[in-house]
Design a protein that fits this description.
Blueprint (H helix, E strand, L loop, with lengths): L14 E10 L3 H12 L4 E5 L7 H4 L4 E3 L2 E2 L2 E2 L3 H12 L7 E5 L7 E7 L2 H15 L2 E4 L2 E8 L2 E9 L2 E12 L5 H5 L4 E2 L16 E4 L3 H5 L3 H13 L10 E3 L6 E3 L12 H25 L7 E5 L10 E2 L7 H5 L7 E5 L3 E4 L6 E4 L5 E4 L11 E3 L8 H7 L2 H19 L10 H10 L6 H9 L1
Parallel strand pairs: 1-2, 1-11, 2-8, 11-22
Antiparallel strand pairs: 3-7, 4-5, 6-7, 9-10, 10-11, 12-17, 13-15, 13-16, 14-15, 18-21, 19-20
Helix pairs in contact: 1-4, 1-11, 3-11, 11-12
The structure holds flavin-adenine dinucleotide.
Flavin-adenine dinucleotide binds next to helix 1, strand 2, helix 2, strand 3 and strand 9.
Amino acid sequence: MADDTHIEEHLSTPIAGHYDVIVVGGGASGTVAAMAAARLGARTLVIERGGCFGGAATANLVAQWVAFFHDETRVVGGIPFELAERVQAAGGSDGFHRYVMGEAAGTPFGLRVLPFNPETLKVVLDDAVKQSGAEVLFHVGFSRALTNDGRITGVIVETVGGRKAYTAGTVIDASGDAAVCASAGVECHGEAVDARAERQPCTLSFRLSNVDVARFKAVPSAERRRLVLGGLERGELFWQSLSFVSTPAGTDAICLMSRITGIDALSERDASRAEQEGRRQIASIVPFLVREIPGFENAVLADIAERVGVRETRRIQGRYTLTEEDIMTERSFEDSVALGAGPMDRHEPDGTGITLYAPPSPFEIPLGALVPAGIEGLLVCGRTLSSTREAMAGARHMATSMAMGEAVGTLAAMATTTNRLPSAVKVAEVQSRLSQGKALFRRSQVETAIAA
Ligand SMILES: Cc1cc2nc3c(=O)[nH]c(=O)nc-3n(C[C@H](O)[C@H](O)[C@H](O)COP(=O)(O)OP(=O)(O)OC[C@H]3O[C@@H](n4cnc5c(N)ncnc54)[C@H](O)[C@@H]3O)c2cc1C
């Protein structure tokens, strides 16, 4: 019944299509999930609220893939590694580099990353998804899960042309916010209002052109730290970071330097405040860089990310919950389908620092952490996997998210193209298919490289 707090709606929604697999979210994990499903012959649709694939990598200008490597050992293969090669072949990256995270915070941590030009990545992903046979609907927002008798049957979406329904045998929630799972009634963690104060901060990234990156790189790390601490003291900077990714030509710096705290990105009011606060911070950071930092003297603000980058919101309750202890004690799982590398990176919710530490070895991610409890036909990938907050901090990196995407896309296709529920597909079948595609999912697969 309608009252002054609620409006009751009676809707008749047209069914716009039927698919084997629907992927909600065309970000790091969802793009790869869709490619994996479509390559195995599943009729696949990706629904993405933005205008391009890539998610954080493109829309948030987070322009480097982390976690392909644990130290010097590569732990992610398959489709994600193919995409890494394709972006290099397209001239969008000059390959994997050693990068020092947390240097300006006085907690330097070296890791091997793949920096790229996000604009090139957009084009590479368009081609790769098209060639896989998956269809995409951009500028379409997921609205509601359709369920029947404990099983997901499709999704309601909002399009420019209004509300529509799409049905599917399997739905993959790659939204980063567990939007489908929450709507389907799956228990989710991290939603409580008091969890907001604990959330890792958001960052609005920006791109500067006309930077002399080589000149900046020659600045000794102690001097960089001194400059950053000065900026912080004067209120011109917002955390201990001079974090940026340079494009292959060495002329642009894509900066991750804003730090927006106390945001619940599941609240439209907080999310709006985050965008405006991010731009306010950027308006302070840019003059600081131009005035103080060697190599930035002639820098010009070329772009601000389309949307603020959100590090965490919901985590689902899955059939298994990955913990920090699993990662740090090198636990093996029979149903492992992806390998993570870390680092475990926790941005302090208050303060201006970041804590970084390495898992002792590549860690296994079990399929059970990607299967929501209590519902059939629904799978997840990416940063909303079933995990503790600490484990999520180590598993959320984009190469790991993409590896999870390949695993659930493979499972979804194997289920729907043989008229089975995902739970009826044996994990050994999925692992065998992943191996055929050169995906890596067991520590033992990379141990030889570690020992060498
Ligand atoms: C500021 C910041 C810095 C980071 N730095 C790094 C780094 O240097 N390297 C690294 O590897 N990782 C980094 N990460 C982590 C990494 O980017 C994410 O954890 C990773 O992208 C998660 O992948 P995902 O597929 O779960 O989500 P995303 O890549 O965020 O993709 C989710 C997609 O779902 C779409 N979507 C969401 N809701 C809806 C809806 N209702 N309808 C339709 N579409 C929807 C979104 O538009 C988006 O495209 C960083 C993250 C942030 C925020």
